[in-house]
Amino acid sequence: MARGDRAAxxxxxxxxxxxxxxxxxxxxxxxxxxxxxxALAEDLAQEAFAEALVTWPREGVPDNPAGWLLxxxxxxxxxxxxxxxxxxxxxAVLANDAGGDGVTTDWDPDQIDDDVLALVFTACHPVLSRxxxxxxxxxxxxxxxxxxxxxxxxxPTATVxxxxxxxxxxxxxxxxxxxxxxxxxxxxxLGSVLSVLYVIFTEGSSASSGADLIRLDLAGEAQRLARVLxxxxxxEPEVHGLLALLELTAxxxxxxxxxxxxxxxxxxxxxxxxxxxxxxxxQAALARAEQAGRGLGAYGLQAxxxxxxxxxxxxxxxxxxxVVALYEALxxxxxxxxxxxxxxxxxxxxDGPAAALAIVDGLVDALPDSHLVPSxxxxxxxxxGRDDEAREAFKRAVELCGNERERxxxxxxxxxxx
Length: 418
What we know:
Elements: H1 3-35, H2 38-59, H3 65-83, H4 89-98, H5 114-123, H6 130-141, H7 146-153, H8 157-173, H9 186-205, H10 216-232, H11 237-250, H12 253-256, H13 276-291, H14 298-311, H15 320-333, H16 337-351, H17 353-361, H18 372-383, H19 387-400, H20 404-416
Helix pairs in contact: 1-2, 1-3, 1-5, 2-3, 3-4, 5-6, 6-8, 6-9, 7-8, 9-10, 9-11, 10-11, 11-13, 11-14, 13-14, 14-15, 15-16, 16-17, 17-18, 18-19, 19-20
C-alpha cells in the first residue's frame, strides 16, 4: 500500500472513530425510533460504521458523516425487513425516510433530541441489573467498545459482551418500549440513570482495583454523559446536582497523584494544581440545582460537600462544621454506612478523633470487607496515640485494599508508626 493510501486509510479510520464517539448515541437512538427494536438499532449502527471503514478511505469522508451513517443504517434496516419478508408499514416508512439513494441531510449536530434521552432511559431500565445498565450505557450511549469497557472495569471482554447481550435480551423479553417515559415515571427511572453515571464516575475516580488510582477515561466519560443529561432534562435539579458533584470532584484530579502516580493525600495536595475551571462549572451546576427551590437531593448534598473542599484554601481552613451538617442531612436522606464513615472523618476534623472513633467503631460490622473502615480507624487511633491498635488497623486495611496505589499509601502509614 502506498504511503498516500495508508494516510488516507488512517485519516478515514480516525474520522470514523471520532464520529462514532460523538454521534453514535444519536444514530442508535434514531434507528431505534424508526425500527422500534433497540437491539436491532445497535446492530444496524455497527454495520453502518463498518461500511464507513471500507467506503470512506476510498471515497473520502462525506460532508455530513452522521447523516451518511444514519442513511446507511436505515438502508440496512430495509434489507433486514426484506429478508424477514415483512414488507409492512415499517418498511414503507423507512424507505420513505431513507430518501431513495440520497443521504439524510436533516441532521443538526447541535440539537439534542428525545432519541438520546429515550436511549438513556432504555439502557438504564430497572429491569436490568446494575452491571448490565453500566455496560449497556457505556456501549450504546457512551460509544465505548466492549474492549474499552472491559479494560475500564478490569474484567474479560467476553464478560462485558455477555452482559450486553443479556441486557438486550432482557429488554426485548420485557417488552420495554423505546421511548421517553411519561413524566410521572421520571422520578424512579431518572434515579436509575443517575445511579449508573455515579457508579461509572466512582470507579473512575477511585479505582477499586488495579495499578492506577484514577481512570481518567472512565471518569471523563461519566462527566460527558452527565453534561448531555443536564442538557436533555434541564429542569431536574438532581441532574445538575450530580453534574456539580462530578465536576467538583474531578477538579482535584490533577493534584491527587504525583509524577510517579503515587497518591497525594488531601492535606498535601497543591491546590494551585486543581482545575479551577471545573470548580466554576461545578459551582454553576450546584447553583442551578439550588435554584429549583426543592432542597438538595443526595447528589446535590454531596456536591455541596465537595464545594466546601474546593473553595477552602487548606484542610485546616475548611468549614468542617458545615461539612458535618451536610453529611448529617445526607445520612437522613440516604442512610448508609459509607455516609456515616465519611461523616466520622468530618467529625474528627471538627470535634477531634475521639468523637469520630465512637462512630467508626459502630461501623466495623456494617462494612466487614471494606478497607475504608480499618483505614479510618488507623488514622484516628494514631492521632489518639494508640499506636499498637493503629498498626493492627492499618494491617487489616492493607489486607482488604484491592488497589495497588492505595495499598502503598496504607503501607507508608503503617511504616510511619514504626
